[in-house]
């Protein structure tokens, strides 16, 4: 069921509940007909003059309580509907789960290649790295195709380890990503190299729009399978994480 369908059902149920409640309240407040009163031996109230204006004293205690109860019920329903709609349509602008405009694509490209390390984007929980392989290879790998790697030249790598979800830091000496929890290791392009991780790091779609780099964090693209090696097969220096077997 889509959020719109769910919100629509909540609205219909709320209106229906209010209509039933209002009908019951009106029925209770209505005086018995003369015939019914005669049959039941009840006193029939004097009919009111047609042109008499109602005043406050006409609203009996029972009527007042019913109206107050009805108003409280309606206010509660309205509040519930508003909270439900707010929950179903979260404000996903400018953070993880939305499309993020990260900055000028050329500036970021220069920054990454000068510093020779990925750029971490905290708002989106991903690292931006430059794709170091052959664009033709990227077109052959479904995950890279979905992420638009060959065309953009960038990779947006989700920092969450695909083993058990730890945050994966960058290891400057090795120039790999190395997970401190169980020692999984990934190349600069997030490709699986070592440890218990079942695949390469997950990633996000990247595109360059009017010179700006835009990363869509609303959809996680599952990382390439183990054995994917398009670049950097070996570490460049010492590892940051060493997990002893046994
Ligand atoms: S969570 Fe990263 S290796 Fe286990």
Structural commentary:
The structure is a single chain. The protein is of the alpha+beta class. It has two domains: 3-46 and 54-88, no CATH class; 99-221, Rieske Iron-sulfur Protein (3-layer Sandwich), CATH 2.102.10.10. Helices cover 36% and strands 19% of the residues. The chain is built from seven helices and ten strands. Strands 1-10-9-4-3-2 form a six-stranded antiparallel β-sheet. Strand 9 (203-209) and strand 10 (212-221) form a beta hairpin. It is elongated. Bound molecules: FE2/S2 (inorganic) cluster. The site of FE2/S2 (inorganic) cluster has 13 residues, from loops.
Descriptive terms for the model:
six-stranded antiparallel sheet, 36% helix, binds FE2/S2 (inorganic) cluster, 246 residues, four-stranded antiparallel sheet, alpha+beta, 7 helices, single chain, 2 domains, Rieske Iron-sulfur Protein
Task: Report, as a whole number of angstroms, the end-to-end distance.
Answer: 48 Å
As a whole number of angstroms, the C-alpha radius of gyration is 33 Å
Q: What are the distinct ligands in this entry?
A: FE2/S2 (inorganic) cluster
The assigned CATH architecture of the largest domain is: 3-layer Sandwich
Number of helices: 7
In CATH, the topology of the largest domain is named Rieske Iron-sulfur Protein
SSE order, one letter for each helix or strand: HHHEHEEHHHEEEEEEE
Structural class, judged by helices and strands?
alpha+beta
Question: Taking strands numbered 1, 2, ... along the chain, how are they ordered across the largest sheet?
Answer: 1-10-9-4-3-2
- The mean pLDDT is 83
- Classified by CATH, the class of the largest domain is Mainly Beta
Proportion of residues in β-strands:
15-25%
Q: Which term fits the overall shape?
A: elongated
């Amino acid at each position: 069921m889509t959020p719109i369908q769910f919100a629509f059902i909540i609205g219909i149920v709320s209106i229906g509940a209010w209509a039933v409640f209002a009908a019951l309240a009106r029925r209770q407040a209505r005086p018995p007909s003369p015939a019914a009163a005669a049959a039941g031996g009840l006193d029939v109230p004097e009919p009111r003059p047609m042109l008499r204006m109602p005043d406050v004293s006409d609203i009996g205690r029972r009527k007042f309580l019913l109206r107050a109860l009805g108003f409280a019920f309606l206010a509660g329903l309205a509040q519930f509907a508003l909270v439900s709609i707010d929950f179903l349509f979260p404000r996903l602008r400018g953070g993880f789960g939305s499309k993020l405009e990260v900055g000028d694509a050329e500036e970021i490209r220069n920054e990454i290649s000068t510093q020779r390390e990925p750029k971490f984007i905290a708002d989106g929980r991903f690292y931006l790295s430059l794709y170091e392989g052959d664009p033709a290879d990227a077109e052959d790998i479904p995950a890279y195709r979905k992420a638009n790697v060959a065309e953009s030249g960038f990779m947006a790598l989700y920092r969450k380890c695909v083993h058990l979800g730890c945050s994966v830091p960058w290891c400057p000496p090795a120039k790999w990503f190395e997970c401190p929890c169980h020692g999984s290791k990934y190349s600069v392009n997030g490709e699986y190299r070592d440890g218990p991780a079942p695949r390469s790091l997950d990633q996000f779609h990247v595109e360059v729009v009017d010179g700006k780099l835009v990363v869509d964090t609303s959809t996680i693209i599952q990382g390439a399978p183990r054995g994917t090696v398009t670049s950097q097969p070996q570490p460049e220096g010492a590892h940051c994480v060493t997990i002893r077997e046994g």
